[in-house]
Known about the structure:
The protein is mostly beta strands. The chain has one domain (19-98). It contains one helix and six strands; from the N terminus they run βββαβββ. Strands 1, 2, 3, 4, 5 and 6 form a six-stranded mixed beta sheet that branches. The longest helix has 7 residues, at 46-52. It is globular and about 40 Å long. The N and C termini lie far apart (53 Å). InterPro entries: Peptidase_aspartic_dom_sf.
Amino acid sequence: MRRVLNNQPSDTQSQRENIFHTRGNISNKACCLIVDSGSWCNCCSTRMVEKLGLTTTPHLKPYQLHWLNDDGDMVVNQQVEVEFSIGNYQDKVKCDLVPM
């Protein structure tokens, strides 16, 4: 006997990290944020830094990112300190600057 309606599990890739989307304020401007609780790297986009006029500093220990794009390694050599708030929670975090 042969099964006609056989439901095969599909190969699904698990998420690299658990992420969620929220809205918050950066430099008193409403922004959409992606919070990634499983990542060891705090990153923000070069576009955000340009739009908000944030000041960058050289990274103390530049490194290469392999997973961000398919074009090869990307050198991360700039940082920015981002002051943000989500509801009543306020914090400052130093983020690595990457083009996204």
